[in-house]
Amino acid sequence: MAEVNEPVDAQSRRAAKPIVCYETDKLPEVDMPAYQIARESLELVAEYTAAPRDACAFDVPAGHFFRIVSVEGPQVGDLNLWSASNLEERFFSGKTRQLHATHVTTGDRLWSNLPHLRALATITHDTLGWYGWDADGAGVHDVIGTRCDPYTNHALRGLHYHYCCHSNLTRALAKHTGLTAQQAERHIHDVLNVFMCTGFSLDTHQYFMKASPVRPGDFIEFFAETDLLGALSACPGGDCGASHSDDATPCYPLRVEVYRNTSEALKNWQPAELNAYDQSHGLK
Description:
Layout: H1 10-14, H2 32-38, E1 42-50, E2 55-60, E3 65-70, E4 77-83, E5 86-90, H3 93-99, E6 109-111, E7 119-126, E8 139-142, H4 150-157, H5 165-177, H6 181-185, E9 192-200, E10 207-210, E11 219-224, E12 228-234, E13 254-261
Antiparallel strand pairs: 1-13, 2-12, 3-11, 3-13, 4-5, 4-9, 4-12, 6-7, 7-11, 8-9, 9-10
């Protein structure tokens, strides 16, 4: 590769002041005090289990809470979310990352894709919120990774492995909706890596994973801002401290719990509305 010479003003170019891309104070307000009051009066209405190296699909009505819970051992999960009435509207990890950060926690929201762009869910509690950022620059619950998939695994290793998160999510969605695997796969999208501990290496800036700090009893909790269909894969990487896309690592189930709010704290709450942009794109 040809050498590229550094320009004489390289230092001044690098010294440009960073600017946060989006000023999020104009977004719809997150009424965390009301959410916190509401979550004190929750009634469990449904449970689902993502078996090790497999996935489950689940429904969450608007105005309900749901939790993803570690139940037997350290395990990460890959989460997909859709509008229950329209699979074309789905979780948009890239925009969520831009509006919040590379890793999300209590008070952050999961946003849907364009042209819908609205909050699908709000994170209302995170027992791993204490983790913050470690010495390697890693955090928990990332929206930077995609999901392990059989195509990348085959490209890198020449193997046909069917229990990557992409395939797990495909099977779960197909089973839940009656779609074929090929139809369901088109709706599988980049994920929230629940409980996964990740970052970018300080030297080469490559995406890395390390053993998750999650332990049985830990959970992340969400409030459904609209009717949701979800799918959760218990990643074949287990705690992602060693490998993934194979059967080498101990894996454990994850549980999804859906709760009905029984308090009056959110009596004035309304489901999130679709984005109001007119979609003319300057052509009118």
